[in-house]
């Protein structure tokens, strides 16, 4: 039978956990749910910080989006970037994870280096890559000196090259995250499976296709979903690298929302676009997650 001191300790521990849960719930409500509700309310108004009074305008902001060419272009760019970066970053993540799945000290150091891009600020990453990719940057200087190019190439100055350059930078950043996810998934594969495969003569690419890749399915679901969501709301790297240029060709939807709210002072319309982006992100995430979950079950 428990004594009173044990009962008091258990009750105290339960109260502490309840307080922590209440604090977490309060922070969630204040910093996520409340701003979401305020933005939703604002999307039905013509809110403008320069106006003394804002009026309820119903669905006018949402109907206006149907004819917004800049919004359509930003959504197209964002979706192309999101799916392109997700495929490239996850392919690199699998490759790096297979290469770094060793226990020696040198490989542990290399795993830390591989994850480094993920822990750096997006602004810092963008400034570093800007010095590399600008007209007179390190890349053009090296290519011209090596006689590979006759003159500097506008990596950030033409629409297609800027899209490729931004995709390259974001892929480099995301590959740190995907590598860690796939490393964790690789290390969770029972060694007995590989031993049995060796006894059966299954090696190389055949082992990867029949054992390793199916066992990576849960990690793939996590990595792909988070990669997509991250790139769909990307703002900082694009702002520093191109500012949405040239001619708004690399303007992400998140950047367009910021310009609407703080440059054009159209907070109500910006809120409506933000709700649209939230809906698209949720739809894409749910669709991709559902498809990958079904793949996990079928493997």
TrEMBL record:
Keywords: Cell membrane, Membrane, Transmembrane, Transmembrane helix, Transport
Pfam families in UniProt: BPD_transp_1
Transmembrane segments: 16-38, 75-100, 112-132, 161-186, 213-235, 269-292
Domain of life: Bacteria
Cell compartments where the protein resides: Cell membrane
Family that this chain belongs to: Belongs to the binding-protein-dependent transport system permease family.
Protein name per Swiss-Prot or TrEMBL: Carbohydrate ABC transporter membrane protein 1, CUT1 family
Organism: Asanoa ishikariensis
